[in-house]
Amino acid sequence: MSATKPSDIVLARMQSGLRITVNGKPRQVSAGSSLADLVLELGLGGAAVAVEKNHALVRARDQSATVLAEGDEIEVVTLVGGG
Amino acid sequence: MPEIPDHESDAPLAVGGISLRSRLLVGTGKYASFEETRAALEISGSECVTVAVRRVNLDAAKGPSLLDFIDRKRFHILPNTAGCFDAASAIRTAELARAILDTPLVKLEVLGDAKTLLPDPVGTLEATRELVKQGFQVLVYCSDDPRLCVRLEEAGAASVMPAGSPIGSGQGVLNPNALRIILELVHVSVIVDAGVGTASDVALAMELGAAGVLLNTAIAGAREPLRMAAAMRDACKAGRQAFLAGRIPRKLYANASSPLEGTIAPAAGRAP
Fold this sequence. Notes:
The complex is a heterodimer of chains A (83) and B (272). Chain A has 83 residues and is an alpha+beta fold. Chain A has two helices and five strands, in the order αββαβββ. In chain A, strands 2-1-5-3-4 form a five-stranded mixed β-sheet. In chain A, a hairpin with a 2-residue loop joins strand 1 (17-22) and strand 2 (25-30). Chain A is globular and about 50 Å long. Chain B is globular and about 85 Å long. The longest helix of chain B has 21 residues, at 225-245. With 272 residues, chain B is an alpha/beta fold. Chain B has helices at 34-44, 87-101, 121-133, 146-154, 176-185, 199-208, 217-220, 225-245, and strands at residues 13-15, 18-20, 24-27, 48-55, 76-80, 105-108, 137-142, 159-162, 189-193, 212-215. In chain B, helix 2 (87-101) packs across helix 3 (121-133), helix 4 (146-154) packs parallel to helix 5 and helix 6 (199-208) packs parallel to helix 8. The chains are: A alpha+beta (83), B alpha/beta (272). Chain A binds chain B through residues 22-25, 42-44, 47-50, 52, 55, 57, 59-60, 75-83, and chain B through 27-31, 37, 50-56, 58, 62, 65-67, 77, 79-80, 82, 92, 95-97, 99-101, 167-168, 194, 214-217, 220.
């Protein structure tokens, strides 16, 4: 690996990254990322969560094969106390 | 000691493919801590608890989760669609819950507006139809309208759950007559959901013949939630027992418990 200045990494990400929305907030991910990658990046691997892409449920078994695209709206939900 | 039929001799509540020995269903919201939630659930004797679906807070540090405090060997988890104001959101929420819990059960709520939290009958019926089509066991929170309850049953609801009064209002069962008519017209389990304020509200619903009662705030919001959990447990059993035993009819005039003949006192106070 060649030494790269942080500014170059940021620049590369800007060029190859994707802008998506996760739980209503903008987020940037690397191009080619899958939904499973995003869940891991969020620290939610193995957690009791369910994931939607553009208002449609994506089952855990399908998350690795689901590649993110620019503008995707992702929802990550869990269970909380309620009545 | 003669054998007194206790609630154990009662048939379990069968709803949505599960069987519950306790007819009390409880929510998990508004507790001071997960520890308190767990204690209240245990004391209530319930075997079915409802939970909500919400966005993961991505900014907060990872802490314990509610599910860590609910023993799934002991409790069936009934996810709800609380907070949904249209059928489409409720359907999405139910699908998300099913993906997490791998359960077909859902407590459907389609609400009309945030101030009253009254169920929207049209959206509720629409969502019931769709969820039934998708294979869910739908326990439907609804208003206490007998005709609506019939329509929900026809749509395939596993249970209709009319509100006693608005969610969290503590007003109890405001229209016992509507509930009585629903109980006559509907064949699936009728579970009174919402509005309970105190133990007598649960007892009343059960005495009228409700198959069960679902409540949350009445326990979680009590000054002593754990004591109230015990009160609700006992009220549910007492009301059920009274229903099974069959109450005496109401009469306008007295009916002496002691024989009127053979008293040493002169006859008095005879009706004119």
